[in-house]
Amino acid sequence: MLDIIYRKPIFFVFSSDRSVCGTISFTFAYERCLFSMPKIKTHKATAKRFKRRKSGSIKRGKAFATHLLGGRSTKRKRSFRKKTQVAQADLGNVQRALQLK
């Protein structure tokens, strides 16, 4: 018999205790693996780039603000400092990576 979640073989440990309804009681060697939920892990690179606001929306930094800034106007470079909201098309992917969905 195979464990569905972890694909490990299940071994039955039989005891001579017949206290439960007169039958041989047994325990699973992998009982903890069978009955515990899998851990939910956050994608750490995504967590460093996106933050959740109090309203529930997700904010992100703007692109094109790191190098080759000499040809851009001061007004444009100043607007790169501000944070903006994640687009609706990308929201599902970001929420899945942050385990918010």
Structure characterization notes:
It contains four helices and five strands. The protein is of the alpha+beta class and 101 residues long. It folds into two domains: 38 residues, no CATH class; 54 residues, Factor Xa Inhibitor, CATH 4.10.410.60. The strands form two sheets. It has a three-stranded antiparallel β-sheet. The chain is elongated, with a radius of gyration of 26 Å. The two termini are 33 Å apart.
SSE order, as H and E? EEHHEEHEH
**Which architecture name of the largest domain does CATH use?**
Irregular
Question: What is the radius of gyration computed over CA atoms, rounded to a whole number of angstroms?
Answer: 26 Å
* Overall geometry: elongated
The CATH class assignment of the largest domain is Few Secondary Structures
User: Major sheet: size, sense and barrel closure?
Assistant: 3 strands, antiparallel
Please state how the strands of the largest beta sheet are arranged side by side.
3-4-5
Task: Report the β-strand fraction as a percent range.
Answer: 5-15%
